Q: What sequence folds into this?
């Protein structure tokens, strides 16, 4: 087992608690509104989960406008608070090897110990049955927020 596998195994409970909170909230937004803007959660050193959102200057906004605001806010929280991990949820279209593009809830999980994982929960909108959720897929990823890295502002 390499060091990344060992770290993933050690941090799996943190990944689960952050990702599950964000998947549940994102699914509720999909059911209630049909879409959602990026939102986040932080895991404190005390083990508490706190939800985080961002607000744009105008009432009409999109994910491209909200995501950088949310990332900046998370970096600021990581500087000011004792955080273990952060997670960012967004509505994404992904293409897995050998498959067609699919909609998915993406949760990017970043831990202060250096592990970054992207988790994808594919979903499909059915005409009369609402949303059908698939099976979660996880992949190692590059940090996007980079709250603890050399680029943290």
A:
């Amino acid at each position: 087992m390499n060091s990344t596998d060992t770290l993933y195994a050690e941090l799996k409970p943190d990944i689960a608690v952050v990702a599950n909170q964000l998947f549940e909230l994102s699914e509720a937004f999909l059911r209630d509104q049909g879409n959602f803007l990026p939102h986040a959660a932080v895991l404190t050193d005390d083990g508490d989960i706190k939800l985080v959102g961002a607000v744009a200057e105008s009432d009409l906004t999109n994910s491209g406008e909200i995501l950088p605001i949310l990332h900046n806010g998370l970096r600021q929280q990581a500087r000011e608070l004792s955080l273990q991990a952060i997670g960012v949820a967004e509505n994404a279209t992904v293409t897995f090897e050998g498959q067609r593009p699919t909609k998915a809830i993406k949760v990017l999980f970043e831990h202060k110990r250096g592990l970054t994982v992207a988790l994808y929960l594919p979903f499909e909108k059915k005409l009369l049955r609402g949303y059908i959720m698939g099976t979660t897929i996880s992949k190692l990823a590059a940090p996007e927020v980079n709250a603890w890295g050399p680029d943290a502002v």
User: Anything to note?
Assistant: The first helix runs from residue 3 to 33. The chain has one domain: 3-140. The chain has a mean pLDDT of 91. The CA atoms of residues 54 and 100 lie 32 Å apart.
